[in-house]
Amino acid sequence: MSSLRFLLSASLLSTAAPLLAAAPPAVTPQQWSILMADSEIARLGDTLDAEPSGKQKWNYTTGLYCDALVRLSAVTHDPVYAASAQKIIGSFISPEGKIATYKVKGVDPAFDPTDNSDSGHESPFFSLDNIQSGVVTIKLYDLTGDERYRKAADFMRDQLKQHPRTSEGGFWHKDRYPFQMWLDGLYMGEPFYADYAKRFKEPADFDDIANQFRLITLHTYDPATGLFYHGWDEKKVQPWANKDTGTSPSFWSRAIGWYAMALVDVLDDLPADHPARPALLADLDKVTKGILKYQDPKTGVWWQVTDQGSRADNYLEATASSMFVYTLAKGVNQGYLPRTYLPAIHAGYQGILSQFVTVGSDGKTIDLNRCCKVATLSKKAPGTYAYYTKGVPIVPNDLKGVGPFINAGVECSKLFGSETFSP
Questions:
Q1: Cα separation, 236 vs 223, whole angstroms
Q2: Contact 128, 174 (CB under 8 A)
Q3: Which of 129, 184, 265, 269 is catalytic?
Q4: Percent of the residues in the chain that have a pLDDT greater than 70, as a whole number
Q5: How far from 369 is each of 152, 155, 327, CA to CA, in Å?
């Protein structure tokens, strides 16, 4: 254990659990990221690793979390985090680069193509959700030189070559969601696509990547609010789709968070002289202005349904708030966004700690509370206000929040240095 991690653990362990729960420590954003990563590693143990039974699946939540661990390892110079990510992701990938539980052919016998609910049973072959873990797979290839990671990345790149598209060339979110583009899909597909194009020198792919952002912005941006709708149906036939525009009915904060994170991550890889770069920066300007417009002035964080504030049943939500702070902080650090955003970022990061972070009952770990577990768009999930606020579970420590929380701390540390924050 590094001296920093030892001191942090000591700060937690030196106080009795009841007192600690009442007065958590004041530490820097990077140290909060370390505490969260250490807590999650302790909580999860081997539960994310691939199993012969196939109980654990190759999925984007694991990829997001493991990518955050690799990023944390890079800034702390503590190999334990990258090693944990390698153990998890590596458990799925064979020496030949085959990915356990990744369906490439055949039909899941439990899959009902007439059931549009988020049942967990995927139709075979094409899902952008399966691509997101490719981001950390490429990083692990660079860290280890192990060719199985390169082979797995090649396989995922091949999946994108065959992925079904709208008539304008936009990736369907999944083949079970025909002719639909969702904000989520931009994060699931484009950062890997861009990383691969840069790392393995396929510059022509950046035109396609830029087109994905152009299309989702064209079809989901609402200039009246400055926000982006969760999904768009090209055919305008889905039960949730507006019959004139094809958009879903509400603004879900986490969907906007996926899109915003996709932009700041892809901009890192997009060539500086690419003709679409000004358009992507303009998209980032649009989405961040919308984010800031609806930041809760009292708490500094954001609501589950972005524009509805304290309306009955709406709630302040941790995963989207962490995504927004990460996006804003990284955008400023990379020079994509103005430093005038610093007060909002500071308020947002402090708000995440004040609203969502508590010390665990064991007195040794921290929890990220009030995470929306899952939301989708389907016949049974119509994307309405009532669905987002009452139709989806709220849980602690969802990896869709833990990963962005870790990343937000890493980026806020670059902005605020040794300043300490406490719940």
A1: 20
A2: yes
A3: 184
A4: 90
A5: 34, 36, 20
Whole-prediction pTM: 0.92
- How far apart (Å, rounded) are the C-alpha atoms in residues 150 and 163? 20
Instruction: Name the token pair of 378.
Output: 């389907």
Contacting residues for 98 by C-beta, under 8 A, at least 6 apart: 152, 155
Q: Answer yes or no: are the C-beta atoms of 212 and 190 closer than 8 Å.
A: yes
Three-state DSSP state, 133: coil
**Distance in angstroms (rounded) separating the CA atoms of residues 351 and 348:** 5
* DSSP helix/strand/coil, 247: strand
Structure tokens at 116: 């549009």
Cβ distance 291 to 261 under 8 Å? no
User: How far is it, in rounded angstroms, from Cα 161 to Cα 374?
Assistant: 28
The reported pLDDT for the residue numbered 20 is 38
Q: What tokens appear for 126 in the block?
A: 């094409």
- Cβ atoms of 49 and 56 within 8 Å: the answer is yes
Quick one: pLDDT at residue 112? 45
Q: What is the pLDDT of residues 14-41, one digit of tens each?
A: 322 333 344 568 999 999 999 999 999 9
| Residue ranges covered by each domain of the chain | 1-34+296-423, 46-163, 201-293
Torsion of CA 351, 354, 357, 358, to 10 degrees: 180
Q: Which CATH number fits domain 1-34+296-423: 3.40.50.300, 3.40.50.720, 1.50.10.10, 3.90.180.10?
A: 1.50.10.10
184 belongs to the catalytic site: yes
Through-space distance between the first and last CA atoms of the chain, rounded to whole angstroms: 25
Give me the residues paired with residue 165 across strands. 171
The three-state secondary structure class of 337 is: coil
Distance of alpha carbon 393 from alpha carbon 349, whole angstroms: 24
What confidence tens digit (pLDDT) does each residue in 78-105 have? 999 999 999 999 999 999 999 999 987 4
Three-state secondary-structure class, residue 31: helix
Is the CB of residue 121 less than 8 Å from the CB of residue 110? yes
Q: How far apart are CA 402 and CA 423, in angstroms?
A: 17
Rounded to whole angstroms, what are the CA distances from 66 to 27, 61, 85, 140, 221? 23, 9, 5, 10, 31
In angstroms, the CA 334 to CA 352 distance is: 22
Residue-wise DSSP of 163-207:
--B-TTSPBPSBTTSTTEEEHHHHHHHHHHHHHHHHHTT-TTHHH
